[in-house]
Amino acid sequence: MRITSANLDETVELNAQISKEVEDHIAYIEKRLIKWRTFPIEQQAFEILKLNQLIEVPIPDLNWGGAIRRFPNGQNVPIINTAQPRVYQYFIYWHEIYHLTESEELKLHGNGYDISIEFDLTERKADYFASQMIFGNGELYDYYHTLEFEDFYVKIAHCMKSYKSPYKAVLIQLYQLAKKNQNQALQEVIKSHFDKQLTTQTWESLFQEYSLDDTLIKPSNVTNLNAIKGPIKEEIKQHSDVELFAENLRVVEGWEKEFKRELNKS
Questions:
Q1: CA angle at 212 for the pair 199 and 174, rounded to the nearest 5°
Q2: How far apart are CA 172 and CA 94, in angstroms?
Q3: 44-to-24, 40, 115, 219 alpha-carbon distances in Å
Q4: Angle at 140 between CA 136 and CA 146, to 5 degrees
């Protein structure tokens, strides 16, 4: 189910139903996995993903945020699409972490599964978990009301910048808080804008006009295949006479070069 203005209320109601479970999972993550508490929230997520052999590749598909793949050694490896805007990558960091740390849920998906714009209950839990890690205790509502701009998109751009969060995630969280505060006027404004999508160029112009960091809405296009290359290099060290390992390394390095060639064309 894709979230639209028509099912926004249903989504918020579902969030309320899963909130206790998600809160418990956040407590688990904060206790067990967050090591560097002074780091920005997106960097905390990145550090967790690195421990799980993170792979980063620019895939030219705006409907594809990332995936989890199970390698032959049994390792569940997160993959991030770095062709997406950075704010979306940061959201997917936490989305991935939810899946990586829900072992029972992972078993249901066999050798892995994609994260796309479609979702079931598990995907809603992962999205809600990501939003709560990013937005925290509800300050978004108060912050939004301190912004002295008339234009709704300008206000949302400032929220996107301050929380390093994608457009739709800001709107869903803000709508949920507006309902909690019985702010009917804000709910209507959010719904009237929810299905509209500004172009990347329009967002860039808006961010630049208000001196906001526009790199947040641009892709990083990072290629990082070290999670694959590292184990192969270790095998080469231990079995230098086995040509298969060297050939595998050449194949992976060829992928890297191909990704970079494609980026240089664009």
A1: 70
A2: 16
A3: 18, 6, 21, 20
A4: 145
Report d(CA 188, CA 178) in Å as an integer: 10
Question: What pLDDT shows up at residue 240?
Answer: 79
Domain boundaries, the chain: 5-224, 225-266
Is the per-residue pLDDT at 90 higher than 50?
yes
Alpha helices in 121-242 (DSSP H): 121-135, 139-146, 152-163, 167-180, 184-194, 200-209, 226-238
Q: Report the percent of the chain where pLDDT is more than 90.
A: 61
- The strands making up 112-116's β-sheet, listed across from edge to edge, are 55-57, 76-81, 64-70, 112-116
pTM of the model: 0.85
pLDDT computed for residue 107 by the predictor: 55
Please check whether residue 227 is in contact with residue 78, taking contact to mean a CB–CB distance below 8 angstroms: no
- DSSP structure class, residue 224: B
Res. 112 pLDDT band, cuts 50 70 90: low
Measure the CA–CA gap between 67 and 13, rounded to whole angstroms. Answer: 27
Q: pLDDT: is 26 or 246 the higher one?
A: 26
